Amino acid sequence: MNFNNQTIWITGASSGIGKALVMALDNQNCQLIISSRRLEDLEAVKNSCLNPQNIACLPFDLADYQEMAFVVETAQSFFGNIDILINNGGISQRSLIIETDIAVDKKLMEIDYLGTVALSKALLPYFIKQQSGQFVTVTSLMGKFSSPYRSGYCGAKHALHGFFDTLRLEHEKDGISVTLICPGFVNTAVAKNAQTGDGSQQNIQDSATENGLDVNDFAERMLKAVHKKKFEAYFGKKEVLGIYLKRYFPKFLHWYTLRSIVR
Question: What GO MF annotations does this protein's record show (predicted)?
Answer without folding.
Answer: oxidoreductase activity
